[in-house]
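Q: You know discrete backbone vocabularies at least as well as I do. I have my own habits and do not want them to colour yours. No explanation is needed for now; the record alone will do.
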Amino acid sequence: MRGRTTRRYGAGVYNAMTTPAAAGQPADPAETEASAEEFRAALGQLASGVVLLAVHDPEEGARGEDIGMTATAFLSVSLDPPLVLVSVREDSRMDDALDRVDHWAVSVLAAEQRVTAARFAMKGRVSDRLLFADLPHERGPASGAPLVSDALATVECRTEQRISAGDHVLLIGRVLSARLGRPSGGPLVYFRGQYRQLG
């Protein structure tokens, strides 16, 4: 039937004829959006894994500089090809570095590594040189970026796509290397504004 668009999403069906836009109805001018406080409170109920995102920026200093950032917005996207996604704040040091460097690494932190997560989440840092000096790590062969020792797992990536999303930038990376770390132990989890462990 003409004038009707139907798309399938999983087990559900989306019918474009049932949406206000398709029916020619204007958007409700009284429609509002959630406040920042409401947004944080609601999304704080979602438990997230914690990772250290790291990149080696060769343009910083004579021998380059390692830059790290704690992230909770990290997820797998595709198995074939292997893709992951990480979110970074727009115009942050990490965003600036990843705009120049397209290889980076992610270490999945264990429950015992909450101090590492807290240190790399501190705001206002000028350099991460001292933080990495105190952090046991090795340099990833595929990315040149630091990989945290005793992390649950590490992945090294090459940026495939950058997507602007509000006050953040989403980076989709092709996984060049994926390795398991420690054979046992639980993950570090971020829930209701605090680092926690399972159990």
Remarks:
- Residues 36-43 form the longest helix (8 residues).
- The mean pLDDT is 85.
